[in-house]
Write a sequence for this structure.
């Protein structure tokens, strides 16, 4: 379904955040017979609905909103509307077509798009792809889940999009190059279960992409994809890391060394994998990666890691404080912990409790000497899941500030204090940015 298909039809836009606003603006320009905006009250933040938006699409809430949805010819839902929402189940029962702004946009732009998803690494990888393409004279527009709704993107010859599982779920067109960085259970409450989450995430690949590039080192991805023909970054026949000419790790394309691993300023093996995926995407897009390796090395060295992802905070004590507040699952926290292997480590965990299973984190820490500090709401449950591990020191505090203060006392002077919560931010905090601000302020306030 394209935006042009909405001309003369009754359309309901479900959601009033930035995606809903972009959808109303785009749909209104295509002459629908009727256009309404629906807010189900699920958002804690309701920005004003006025001016052009209110004129183009009157806002309806409550039961009246549900009625307008079922009366529509097409519903355009925001990504924040979960697949488990009872109103969505009723729309499906009535066979009312439901789509999203990203799906409408992709129908017109798929052939010019690199779409990146993954349970971990999609933001960094998509940012790297866009950054490296620009460095080799391939201008592109970057957007999607990273902050700019697709329907607000300017015209371009090439797009690089970060796509969430929610955005992928309604796609009926795959991008020219479909990229998956990792796959593990995440957002199960919104998707309805692990199988449903994988189905929605991998819907990015379900509609005829020209090329699929994946992280070839991810075992769950390998199991889900089976023998499907894909480019498996991280394996010897494509981009990978191996011993280089000087005896240190280097990035390679096939048997050709490109540049040393030390060029990449991001810590962790998972970030090595993210760059392997990015380089593989450039290769399939026709960039001569071998010939441009010096240019790419300079661009990689200048890449700025994304905020709230293993962001180090300078501290006069000699401790390294690390903000990884976007690690909202046990698997993401495990990657972050591995990034600081070999250093004394205190990790702060906990946030909104979605009932996640923390057995994988327990297994990962079984032989590791580490201090784990839990904060509300789920911190106590995460810490309890680690009971009996002989090398794990466990503590529970009443809030994040208290956790930072305790971490200063128990972490050796050359150690790392890592905020990698393995849980979402909402509940105790407005959003992940707020949690990050509180952490940074606590580091400053306790420095004396």
């Amino acid at each position: 379904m394209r935006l042009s298909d909405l001309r003369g039809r009754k359309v309901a836009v479900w959601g009033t955040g930035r995606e809903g606003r972009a959808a109303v603006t785009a749909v209104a320009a295509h002459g629908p017979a009727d256009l309404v905006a629906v807010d189900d009250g699920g958002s804690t933040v309701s920005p004003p609905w006025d001016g052009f938006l209110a004129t183009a699409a009157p806002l309806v809430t409550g039961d009246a909103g549900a009625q307008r949805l079922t009366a529509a010819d097409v519903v355009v839902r925001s990504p924040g509307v979960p697949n488990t929402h009872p109103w969505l189940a009723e729309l499906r029962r009535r066979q009312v077509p439901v789509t999203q702004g990203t799906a409408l946009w992709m129908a017109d732009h798929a052939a010019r798009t690199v779409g990146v998803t993954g349970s971990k690494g999609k933001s960094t990888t998509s940012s790297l792809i866009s950054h490296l393409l620009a460095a080799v004279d391939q201008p592109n527009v970057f957007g999607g889940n990273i902050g700019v709704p697709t329907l607000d993107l300017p015209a371009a010859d090439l797009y690089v999009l970060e796509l969430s599982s929610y955005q992928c779920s309604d796609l009926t067109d795959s991008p020219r190059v479909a990229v998956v960085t990792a796959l593990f259970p995440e957002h199960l409450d919104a998707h309805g279960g692990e199988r449903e989450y994988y189905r929605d995430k991998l819907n990015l690949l379900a509609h005829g992409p020209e090329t699929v590039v994946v992280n070839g080192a991810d075992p769950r991805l390998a199991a889900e994809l089976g023998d499907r023909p894909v480019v498996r970054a991280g394996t010897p026949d494509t981009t990978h890391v191996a011993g280089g000419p000087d005896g240190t790790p280097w990035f390679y394309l096939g048997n050709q060394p490109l540049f040393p691993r030390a060029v990449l300023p991001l810590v962790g093996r998972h970030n090595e994998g993210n760059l392997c995926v990015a380089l593989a995407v450039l290769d399939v897009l026709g960039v001569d990666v071998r010939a441009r390796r010096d240019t790419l090395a300079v661009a990689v060295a200048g890449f700025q890691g994304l905020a709230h992802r293993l962001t180090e905070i300078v501290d006069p004590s000699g401790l390294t404080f690390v903000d990884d507040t976007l690690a909202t699952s046990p698997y993401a926290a495990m990657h972050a912990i591995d990034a600081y292997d070999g250093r004394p480590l205190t990790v702060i965990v906990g946030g909104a409790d979605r009932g996640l299973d923390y057995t994988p984190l327990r297994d990962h820490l079984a032989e590791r000497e580490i201090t784990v500090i839990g904060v509300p709401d789920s911190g106590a449950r995460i810490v309890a899941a680690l009971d009996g591990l002989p090398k794990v020191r466990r503590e529970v505090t009443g809030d994040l500030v208290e956790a930072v203060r305790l971490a200063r006392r128990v972490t050796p002077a050359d150690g790392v204090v890592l905020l990698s919560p393995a849980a979402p931010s909402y509940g105790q905090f407005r959003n992940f940015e707020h949690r990050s601000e509180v952490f940074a302020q606590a580091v400053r306030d306790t420095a004396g």
About this structure: The radius of gyration is 23 Å. The domain at 104-301 is CATH 3.40.1190.10 (UDP-N-acetylmuramoyl-L-alanine:D-glutamate ligase).
